[in-house]
Each structure stands twice: as C-alpha cells, then as structure tokens.
C-alpha cells in the first residue's frame, strides 16, 4: 500500500486515539470498500488503465446503440415523429443533434431548455474550476515532498503531499472559497437567463382543498363574488374521483382500436383473423386446452361492449364521488393574489394569527374556515387519478413506503456492503488473489456504478408509488431523495471508510467516536481514496452516459409489453404508447451527485476535475439527444429547477468541509487556516439556511429568477384561452360512442403531444402501418 506519512506519523491532539488504528490506517479505511478496489501499487492509481478500458466500452456501447437504432428504430419518441425528411436522417443517429434552443423549446418544452441551460452553466463552471485546479493547485501539490518521489505515484497530485506548516495551504483554502463564489455566480447567471414564463391561466386559478364535498359550483362563485368586491369568477370546477373511470376509458379505447384494426384488415384481405386472447398469445406456437383461438373482430367487439357498459356506469357515478377540492378561475391576477394572501396571511407555529377569511352567505355551508388555498398547477402537470389519494390515507401510504425504504437502505446503503454479502457465498473471493489491473480497477468501479444505478432506482419507484398529485411534486421528491441517498452512498460513507448508514450511526453514537473520528477523517485524504473517485467519475462519464443513451431499462420494459400483447393490434398499441416523459428529478440527482464528487475533491485531488468536465460534456450531448428523440415533453414548475440550484451550492460547501477536516487534523482547530475555513463555512451555511427557510439574503443566493408575462398573451388569455382546462380529459369526452378518429386522437398522451411536431394523423397512420406490415400475416 502507499505509505501515508501523516496517517502513521501524525501526532494526534487527543491521546485517546488507539495506536493500532493509526498503524493500520489504510486497512481501516478500505475495510468498507470492495476488497479489490484498494488501489495498491498500480501506476498512477490505476487511472490510465480504467480510462482506456472504459473508453473501449464506450465505443462498444455506441456501436450497439447504432445497431439498435436501425433494428428497433420504433422505440422512443422518434417513432412517433414519423418519417420526417430531413438532412439529419442521413447521418448516424448518435451524431444528429438538434441545434438551437428554440428548436428544443418547440419540440420538448421550456423545462428541457432550462435543464440544458443548467448543464451548460455547470460545464462553464467546471471549465473555470478545472483551469484553476490543474494550473495552480496541481503544481502546488506536486511541490510537496511527503510522499514518494515517483512519476507513477498518484499521491503526489493530492493535498496529502504537503506538510502541515506549508504556507501554500492558504492557497487551497482561498481557492475553495473562490469556487463557492464562482458556483453562486454561475447559478445566478443561469437563473437570470431562465425568465420563467408563467401561464396566464395558472396565475388566475386557485386550487382549493377542504371544500364541502357536495358544494355546487354556483355556490363557490357566489361566495367569492359576495366576499370580494369587483371579483368575477369565470369558472369553478369541483374535482371528482376519476381513477377507475380513467382506467376503464383507456381499456375501452384499446379494445376499440383493436376492433377497428382487425375490421380494416379483414376488409383488405377478405379473411377473418384469429387470435389467442391470453397474455403472450401471439407467441404461442401450439393450441392447447384453455388457449384456443377466437375470431378477432368478435372478441374485441364483445370486449368493447363490456367496457363501454362499465364505463357508462362508472361515469354516471362520478358526480357521486366528489373529493372536496375545486379549481377556481378568476378574471385577473390581481384579485387572485388578494384572495390567496387572505387565506395564507401570517401563520405562526401552526396557529393562525389572522381573523376568519372574508365571509359571505355561503361561508358556513362551504366550510370556508377549513379551506387550504394555493395557486393551481398547470393542468398538464396534474395526475388526475391521484387526487383521490389524499389526507390521512396519503400520509399513511407515504409513511409506510418511506419506512420500508429507510429500513432497506439503512443496511444496504453502499454497493460495498452488497459485495461483502456476496463474499460470504464466495462469489467474489477468487478476485482477491488477482493483481491484474483489469480486475482490480475496472471491475470494481463497474460494480460500483451498477449498484449505484440499481439502488437509486428503488428510491425513484418509492416516489412513484407515493402517488403525488403533480408531476412536479413527484420529480422534486425523486430529486431530493435520490440526491441525498447518492451522496451518502457514493461520496460520504466510502470517503470515511464506512459501509452503510447502520455502521455510520453506530460509529456516530459510540463511546469511541472521538477516538476513531480522527482516523475516519484521515480516510478522506488517503491518496488511493482520490484515485478511487477519479475512476468512478471516469466510469460514470463513459459507461454511465452510454447506458443512458441505450436506455436499457426502458427497452426491456418495451420488449416485455410487446411479448405480453395478445395480437398485432395490441402490439401496435404498445408501440403508440411506449414513449414517456423525461424524468428530470432522477436526471438532476444523478448529475448533481457526480458534480458534487468532482467539486468536493477538486482541491484535495485536482486531477478529478478534467474527468468531471468530460462527464458533463458527454452528459449534455446524451441528454440533448434523448430529450429530442426519445422522451415526450413534460410540463413542470420552476421549483424542480430551483431545487437543483440549491443542490449545486452544496458541492463547494462539502469541499470546504473536506479542507476543514484536513486542516484540523494536520495543524489543529486553532490554526489560522482552520479558523478561516471554519468561519467561511459557518457564514455560508447560515446564509443558505436563512435563504431556504426564511427567504433572507436574496441578493447573496444562487437564485435570480425573472418571471415575466407577455402582454399579448395576457390579453389573449383573458378573452381567448379555452375554459374547462382544469378538468380531467376523461370528463371532457362527450360520449364513449364517438367516432373512431376521435377516439384515436384522444386515446394517447403520446399522440396529443406529438401533434405539436407538425405530424398529421395520416402520416402517423402510415408510419404505424409500415411498422407492423410484416406482423399482420403471422
């Protein structure tokens, strides 16, 4: 193992530090790692080997991607966009990127533009940090003489190579503070350019919860017009439980499309089609008892009639299942703001410090005193089927999901502990006896990436099953939960030589905490520790981004749905509904995790910054491609983007923490560098907490949003915006017996969103027919 002078010869300020811990510092720190990840004696920490192997894997995955796009081109949003005759179609798919942001905004929505702008500012920030770290910090680290004078020694590039009394350490502390200022400036520049456009209808609509369940829209209108002078209510829309109705409607439309498909097929070929109505029926090559084939048109006709009857009965009962919620639209933004302020004025510790809201003749019957009022989200942002899960039921559901999640992740926090469990069954034990760089460097970092991709997936689905009312809420919860978990799993626990939260809390509350704390924090600055994270960033840059381009989980789900289809008509339906929205929450969490790792080690291990920049460049290209060709547009609010900005600021704060640990252990807490770092850190944390919790220090924060409204759109909104947007699509359908073309148009969110791409239904129809022309006669 690398000799670590300050780990073995450093004299601790506390005499209670066990000698045996200091003597075995490296083993102590790496005990939490996959055993083969200890970078022992390999040239430059194994970084060149890992870089070469990961790059070759990247090229191989790109080759696989180019083949998949030719063989399975109908997977993703690209299939729904049809056969657009553009110059880009002649180029390889992975080289055809959209150009300007205006094009991205038209095809993918404003949130995609904000996301890509965020990435560009992070790239610019990493360019500045990379220049400073490589041009200034790296030579300073090289100037030290604590570690062996070897050109292949990775430790010489780290802060561990400097003596505790070296005045050049002031440069590290100053640059960490400079990185914090650069981060805040970069994010303020990003948010100032966003100019978030608020929809006029959203600014004039309030979401009210706690209304009497059987309140009539006329009474709601009457209340506001009586209680507030010059108030005109344009519309009041009560909410109903439509979860089952939406399910029946979707199944009915699928059955209708199946009937129409086989009717058209029979008219062309004059031959009735037979299908196996069981799941995976089209894969059965033999007829067995219970899986007999039936006539397709007859089967889908009966199924459609049954679902129509169920749909009609459910729709008749919808008005009997109110939720005690309503969307109320007013004539202008001013009166909307007044009403919102009236219902949300000054609450202290849960106790209202205000009088009752303005009363009317309907106040008592509407239970106005129980109302919770807020701005309504965008209609496209609402999960209408989730509104029925509310109150005590929602909180119990959320609590159970998160308790199970916490128990699971409490003991399986890091990939290292999973590998340790595998070692008990001698799965990875043979690897220990190998000293091949391919095994000891490439394989462990690949395992780390694979497990770090698997575990956050569990976190993501926990947010999905919580049944949030809005897409923004779901993405925001996913982002915060995944980011917090990833930081513990990828950065904090491995850096401290801990394997799980269980071990972390046992160490934190143990009597020997102070005795072991010094050695735990020494783990952060072991040279091999920095090399480990450099290898992780390299793996994320090449393998992680290539896997994002392939979208293997989505492709597997697509294949499973195709296999479960019962006929060619259902396979066609799967192909028309396989594209889904971009998950901004998970994407932000992943990206910010790698960025935080890079910024945290940008001073102690500056060689990591160029690889972090490489990761962000590839990430930007991959996400730009996926947003344009693979995913549907999403309509979110600005809270998801502001939450990502807050997470960015956490990265340089962790960098300051790392330097504080280093300075305290080397020179003591009262050393000038330690005190300076501590003061800067405390001031930064206080400002961040005051801004997040109380809204203070706005001019020192990383946020600089400019919300604007276009005057023409405002006037248009007052007179021309269609009413009835705040109602579930299933309640807007006039009847289930609509025309086939109407059903086709309304049957898919994919199709509704793709119509904005300038593709008509005829083009879509011909495109879909070409996809399955070889399947029809099977």
From TrEMBL:
<dbReference type="GO" id="GO:0005886">
    <property type="term" value="C:plasma membrane"/>
</dbReference>
<feature type="transmembrane region" description="Helical">
    <location>
        <begin position="438"/>
        <end position="461"/>
    </location>
</feature>
<dbReference type="InterPro" id="IPR003864">
    <property type="entry name" value="CSC1/OSCA1-like_7TM"/>
</dbReference>
<feature type="domain" description="CSC1/OSCA1-like N-terminal transmembrane">
    <location>
        <begin position="50"/>
        <end position="188"/>
    </location>
</feature>
<feature type="domain" description="CSC1/OSCA1-like 7TM region">
    <location>
        <begin position="397"/>
        <end position="669"/>
    </location>
</feature>
<feature type="transmembrane region" description="Helical">
    <location>
        <begin position="675"/>
        <end position="697"/>
    </location>
</feature>
<feature type="transmembrane region" description="Helical">
    <location>
        <begin position="394"/>
        <end position="418"/>
    </location>
</feature>
<dbReference type="InterPro" id="IPR045122">
    <property type="entry name" value="Csc1-like"/>
</dbReference>
<feature type="transmembrane region" description="Helical">
    <location>
        <begin position="482"/>
        <end position="505"/>
    </location>
</feature>
<feature type="transmembrane region" description="Helical">
    <location>
        <begin position="168"/>
        <end position="187"/>
    </location>
</feature>
<protein>
    <submittedName>
        <fullName>Transmembrane protein 63B</fullName>
    </submittedName>
</protein>
<feature type="domain" description="CSC1/OSCA1-like cytosolic">
    <location>
        <begin position="204"/>
        <end position="386"/>
    </location>
</feature>
<keyword id="KW-0472">Membrane</keyword>
<feature type="region of interest" description="Disordered">
    <location>
        <begin position="733"/>
        <end position="765"/>
    </location>
</feature>
<keyword id="KW-1133">Transmembrane helix</keyword>
<keyword id="KW-0813">Transport</keyword>
<dbReference type="Pfam" id="PF13967">
    <property type="entry name" value="RSN1_TM"/>
</dbReference>
<dbReference type="InterPro" id="IPR027815">
    <property type="entry name" value="CSC1/OSCA1-like_cyt"/>
</dbReference>
<dbReference type="Pfam" id="PF14703">
    <property type="entry name" value="PHM7_cyt"/>
</dbReference>
<feature type="transmembrane region" description="Helical">
    <location>
        <begin position="49"/>
        <end position="68"/>
    </location>
</feature>
<feature type="transmembrane region" description="Helical">
    <location>
        <begin position="585"/>
        <end position="618"/>
    </location>
</feature>
<comment type="similarity">
    <text>Belongs to the CSC1 (TC 1.A.17) family.</text>
</comment>
<feature type="transmembrane region" description="Helical">
    <location>
        <begin position="644"/>
        <end position="663"/>
    </location>
</feature>
<dbReference type="GO" id="GO:0005227">
    <property type="term" value="F:calcium-activated cation channel activity"/>
</dbReference>
<feature type="transmembrane region" description="Helical">
    <location>
        <begin position="536"/>
        <end position="564"/>
    </location>
</feature>
<feature type="transmembrane region" description="Helical">
    <location>
        <begin position="122"/>
        <end position="142"/>
    </location>
</feature>
<dbReference type="Pfam" id="PF02714">
    <property type="entry name" value="RSN1_7TM"/>
</dbReference>
<keyword id="KW-0812">Transmembrane</keyword>
<feature type="compositionally biased region" description="Acidic residues">
    <location>
        <begin position="739"/>
        <end position="754"/>
    </location>
</feature>
<dbReference type="InterPro" id="IPR032880">
    <property type="entry name" value="CSC1/OSCA1-like_N"/>
</dbReference>
């Amino acid at each position: 193992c690398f000799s670590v002078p300050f780990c073995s010869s450093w004299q601790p300020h506390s005499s209670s530090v066990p000698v045996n811990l200091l003597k075995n510092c490296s083993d102590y720190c790496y005990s939490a790692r996959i055993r083969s990840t200890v970078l022992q004696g390999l040239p430059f920490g194994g970084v060149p080997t890992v870089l070469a192997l990961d790059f070759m894997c990247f090229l191989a995955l790109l080759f696989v991607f180019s083949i998949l796009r030719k063989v399975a081109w109908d997977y993703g949003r690209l299939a729904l966009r049809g056969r657009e005759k553009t110059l880009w179609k002649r180029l390889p798919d992975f080289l055809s990127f959209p150009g300007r942001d205006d094009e991205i905004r038209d095809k993918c929505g404003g949130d995609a533009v904000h996301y890509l702008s965020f990435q560009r500012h992070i790239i610019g920030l990493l360019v500045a940090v990379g220049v400073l770290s490589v041009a200034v910090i790296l030579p300073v680290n090289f100037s030290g003489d604590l570690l062996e004078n070897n050109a292949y020694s990775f430790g010489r590039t780290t802060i561990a190579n400097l003596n505790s009394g070296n005045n050049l350490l002031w440069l590290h502390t100053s640059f960490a503070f400079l990185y914090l200022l650069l981060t805040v400036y970069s994010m303020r520049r990003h948010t100032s350019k966003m100019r978030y456009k608020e929809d006029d209808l959203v600014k004039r609509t309030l979401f009210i919860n706690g209304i009497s369940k059987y309140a009539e829209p006329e009474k709601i209108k009457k209340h506001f017009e009586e209680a507030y002078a010059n108030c005109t209510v344009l519309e009041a829309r009560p909410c109903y439980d439509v979860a089952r109705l939406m399910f029946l409607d979707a199944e009915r439309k699928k059955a209708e499309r199946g009937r129409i498909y086989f009717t058209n097929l029979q008219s062309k070929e004059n031959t009735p089609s037979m299908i196996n109505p069981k799941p995976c029926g089209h894969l059965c090559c033999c007829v067995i008892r219970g899986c007999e084939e039936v006539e397709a048109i007859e089967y889908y006709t009966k199924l459609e009639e049954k679902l129509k009857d169920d749909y009609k009965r459910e729709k008749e009962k919808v008005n009997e299942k109110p939720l005690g919620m309503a969307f109320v639209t007013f004539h202008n933004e001013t009166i909307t703001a007044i009403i919102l302020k009236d219902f949300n004025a000054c609450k202290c510790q849960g106790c209202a410090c205000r009088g009752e809201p303005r009363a009317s003749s309907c106040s008592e019957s509407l239970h106005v005193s129980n109302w919770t009022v807020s701005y309504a989200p965008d209609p496209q942002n609402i999960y209408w089927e989730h509104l029925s899960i509310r109150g005590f039921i929602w909180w119990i559901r959320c609590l159970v999901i998160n308790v199970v999640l916490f128990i699971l992740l409490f003991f399986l926090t890091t990939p290292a502990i999973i590998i340790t469990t595998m070692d008990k069954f001698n799965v990875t034990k043979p690897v220990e006896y190998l000293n091949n760089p391919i095994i000891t460097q490439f394989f462990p970092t690949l395992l780390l990436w694979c497990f770090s991709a698997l575990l956050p997936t569990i976190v993501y689905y926990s947010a999905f099953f919580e049944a949030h009312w809005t897409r923004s809420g779901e993405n925001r919860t996913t982002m915060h939960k995944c980011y917090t978990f990833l930081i513990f799993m990828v950065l904090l626990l491995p850096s401290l030589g801990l394997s799980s939260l269980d071990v972390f809390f046992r160490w934190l509350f143990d009597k020997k905490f102070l005795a072991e704390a010094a050695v735990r924090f020494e783990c952060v600055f072991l040279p091999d520790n920095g090399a480990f994270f450099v290898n992780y960033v390299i793996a994320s840059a090449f393998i992680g981004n290539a896997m994002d381009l392939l979208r293997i989980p989505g492709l597997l789900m697509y294949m499973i749905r195709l296999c479960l289809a019962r006929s060619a008509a259902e396979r066609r339906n799967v192909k028309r509904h396989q594209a889904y929205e971009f998950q901004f929450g998970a994407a932000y969490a992943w990206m910010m995790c790698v960025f935080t790792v890079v910024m945290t080690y940008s001073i102690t291990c500056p060689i990591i910054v160029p690889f972090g920049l490489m990761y962000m460049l590839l990430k930007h290209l991959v996400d730009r491609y996926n947003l344009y060709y693979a995913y549907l547009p999403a309509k979110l609010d600005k809270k998801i983007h502001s939450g990502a900005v807050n997470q960015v600021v956490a990265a340089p704060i962790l960098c300051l923490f790392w330097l504080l640990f280093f300075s305290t252990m080397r020179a003591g807490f009262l050393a000038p560098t330690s005190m300076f770092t501590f003061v800067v850190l405390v001031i930064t944390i206080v400002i961040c907490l005051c801004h997040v919790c109380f809204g203070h220090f706005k001019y020192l924060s990383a946020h600089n949003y400019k919300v604007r409204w276009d005057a023409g759109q405002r006037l248009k909104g007052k007179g021309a915006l269609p009413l009835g947007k705040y109602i579930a699509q299933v309640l807007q359908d006039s009847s289930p017996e609509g025309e086939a073309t109407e059903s086709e148009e309304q049957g898919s969110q994919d199709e509704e969103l793709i119509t904005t791409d300038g593709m008509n239904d005829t083009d879509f129809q011909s495109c879909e027919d070409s996809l399955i022309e070889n399947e029809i006669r099977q």
